């Protein structure tokens, strides 16, 4: 079926990714504690937002950005839910390499 792929249509996947990036950005903006790697996370979230605007973002690039965001913010329990939503949105683009 054209336009249909793992995790929904391309438009559905992109919409889910944009929503997850936006949700995490808002949660991060509301987080009152200064985080040493906040700038790294914000930079990668900007990259993810740009990738979501592409017609077919590369899953490997999405996963690389996700790993950097998780490394920067993964220990912050207040951000666990939006991080999980971002992970789920990126998972819709395909499994990690070696897990087909």
Automatic annotation (TrEMBL):
Pfam families, per database record: DUF5955 (PF19380)
The organism's place on the tree of life at top rank: Bacteria
InterPro entries: DUF5955
UniProt-recorded name of the protein: Uncharacterized protein
Record organism: Streptomyces alkaliterrae
């Amino acid at each position: 079926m054209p336009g249909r792929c793992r995790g929904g249509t391309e438009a559905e996947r992109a919409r889910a990714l944009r929503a997850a990036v936006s949700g995490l950005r808002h949660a991060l903006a509301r987080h009152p504690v200064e985080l040493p790697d906040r700038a790294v996370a914000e930079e990668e979230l900007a990259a993810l937002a740009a990738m979501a605007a592409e017609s077919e973002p590369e899953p490997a690039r999405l996963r690389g950005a996700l790993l950097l965001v998780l490394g920067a913010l993964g220990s912050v329990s207040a951000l666990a839910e939006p991080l999980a939503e971002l992970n789920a949105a990126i998972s819709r683009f395909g499994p990690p390499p070696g897990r087909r």
